Amino acid sequence: MQLITADYPATTPVDTDVHVGVVGSGDLEITLAPPASSDTVTVTVRTSVDGFDTTWRGVLDAFFSRNEIACDVRINDFGATPGMVSLRLSQAFEIAAAPDDEATRGTAGMPFTELNARQRAATILDEGTYREILPPSDHVESSHLERQGIVPASDDGAVVARGTVDGVPAAVVALEGKFQGGGIGEVSGAKIAAVLERALVDAENGHPTQVILVLETGGIRLQEANLGLLAIAEIHAGIVALQRHVPVTAIVAGMVGCFGGMGIAAGLCDRIIMTRAGRLSLNGPEVIETEAGIEEFNSADRSTVWAVTGGEHRVATGRADTLVADRPAAVREAVISGWNTPTDRHRADRVDELTRELAATDAERTK
């Protein structure tokens, strides 16, 4: 990983924070903040690809030679091309010149699965109530990735927002699947656990807050394995403690799916909402193939993968509750409807039922 810095003259200081992009393959994240000096643009680049100083400086020189906005610029790059860098810079500075709401930017008519984590959270909450906790401008990121040559994200891939849903106080945590496959590390895990803990305190004080988890994750982030395990254990405990007061809803929409320890977290929630594109399982297809062999499970066979782990199958077999169309409005309506549909037993209390099902399955296999 390489650090590149540069300064350029400018005339008009920005007075707002701007965030665009994601630290995903071939992409980059850019944050703009009010400048330390009103006549200077200060640029800091962290890139996962070493040895391209000349290319970076060429792109930056060309862009900032025609820029008049003074600000502090942070770029977290994950192998973006010069064209993509220029595109993201243009996008960021256009927004700085005419600020808008990032959380709802470009969401009209988009499928839920194609929205980023911030947009997903915003489309679930009532319009105008979205308030992000620890936004990218706070730069609360993992301290463990950089030393392993991985560029961190300024929100560690976890978006926490508060607001209302149908007038009811709610907190939404949405994981960004494009950053490290939505993997749970120390910071992202702590954000989820903190939301659950805060909601529990609110409920115990007579101010219940509904919690919605939008899960797009392969489970624990391997680069922070032990810390990820600890965080997921806290998340599991937080879900079980909170659901004695208010229901906890999980949404598994697609793209990455929901696997590993966070698959267990989803399984503990009171209601699980899925799209047909969503996948939910303990082990991912590649893991099953590696451990059991391709004869047991071929991870390249997409029809089989979705037939076993996809949303339609999970709802049909009772492992998820609601199958929804891939539209933000449909997902939001399913959340509200789920709150109005009481459950007789929490999933965490159904160990006996699941044990009987496993025993019956084992009996069939040994015949």
From TrEMBL:
Transmembrane segments: 248-269
Modified residues (O-(phosphoribosyl dephospho-coenzyme A)serine): 25
Cellular component terms per the entry's GO annotation: cytoplasm
Ranges of residues in domain Acetyl-coenzyme A carboxylase carboxyl transferase subunit beta: 116-303
UniProt keyword Transmembrane, yes or no: yes
Entry GO MF terms: acetyl-CoA carboxylase activity; carboxy-lyase activity
Entry-linked Pfam families: ACP, Carboxyl_trans
Lineage: superkingdom: Bacteria
Keywords, alphabetical: Cytoplasm, Lyase, Membrane, Phosphoprotein, Transmembrane, Transmembrane helix
InterPro entries membership: AcCoA_carboxyl_beta, ClpP/crotonase-like_dom_sf, Mal_deCO2ase/Cit_lyase_ACP, Malonate_beta, Malonate_deCO2ase_dsu
BP GO annotations: carbohydrate metabolic process; fatty acid biosynthetic process; malonyl-CoA biosynthetic process
Places the protein is found: Cytoplasm
Post-translational modification: Covalently binds the prosthetic group of malonate decarboxylase.
HAMAP family documented for this protein: Malonate_deCO2ase_dsu (MF_00710)
Protein name: Malonate decarboxylase acyl carrier protein
Native source organism of the sequence: Corynebacterium kalidii
